[in-house]
Amino acid sequence: MRKFVKVLSGFLAAAMTACAVPAVAQASERKTPELVAEALNGCSPEAVTEALNGYSLGYMSWGVRKMGLHTLQEKLERSGKPLPEVRVAVLDTGLKKTNRYLQGRYINDGYNFVDNNTDFDDDQYHGTEVSGVIADGTSSNVKILPIKVMDGNGDGKMADTAKGIYYALEHGADVINLSLSGDDKNHTYHSLDDAIAEAVARNVVVVVAAGNEDTDASLRYPANKDNVITITSVNKNNRLGLLANYGSVVDFALPGMNILAPHKSIMLPDSGTSLAAPHAAAAAALLKTWCKDLNQEQVMEILKQHAVDLGEPGFDNTYGWGMLDLSDFDINAAPPEKPAEPEPALTGDVNLDGTVDINDATLLQQYLSEMTELSDAQLAVADANGDGGIDINDVTIIQRYIAELIPSLGN
Fold it and tell me: Is 274 noted as a catalytic residue in this protein?
């Protein structure tokens, strides 16, 4: 049975050394990772644990400031407008319910597709870290919907991930984060393809990690899908993260190295595209806070407009469109227009001129006499009676249409 593997390279920062530690953040304060690191410099492991246990969510990840998420977050909070609840479904190893940093930031409606029950508690740590990054980079109106699709080893089934997406849709998800990866490069798991397509059709933003195999992300699934937002990782110097995947399917390169995040009961730094993807999910959640009706295409357009080029000019196969910086995002601007929906084909309009007239009947008769093979698109409009084929009945129906529209033609 084919499995996903967790998209996490598992790097932990060097051990911190010993000494006394000053008090760190109170619950109401926003402390940056730099300030926390300064306070903990040279302290014993016990003191570090005590200090981090007293720390609260608030720009833990250096990526939050790098991407200007804190600035956009503050603009939204100070706008005076009520902020709608935005739900981010995290399909992962679950969420550690007792983790103090995530209290009040997740919804209890999650589900466990590994064991088929409602206990989504994280018996590893990966999903808790991913959820922590999202919570750290967003306002309190953004809630995590934990959906457990991977076990304590970080393994899971693609079928469970598809089920998890449908569950997320049923429970009001606005954004879906998939920090997971598999080797189904040929998309043979149609159930997951269909689930993602359904999510995008419902205006849900789907973010996927590129993977950590130091290879072309087009070989990894679902990172290689063209209807998701695929994220690779970079370090503080905007260099591609260690083992991070790359390639033409990558959309953005976001912070993913040495990211401080909730880990079981405390916070620890970790690395990988799994930590980069939730930075994009957080950005999408803030944009959904600004305008709940945005679809994925609109979100993608905004992100591209706020991308900072990192590699070759324009899009490139290492960094995609580059790093995001939403610090100058104008919350008073009008949302980008949605592309116009294509006009549905007019049944019976065989020559596709926008009307049903005598020329359509003539063309149908020609098809019948010459037994001309029709494309699927031609069949869709020429099959006037909808029986799956082109026959004399279609000609008769079109002639009837014309007779009713233009009585003189029926005489």
Answer: yes
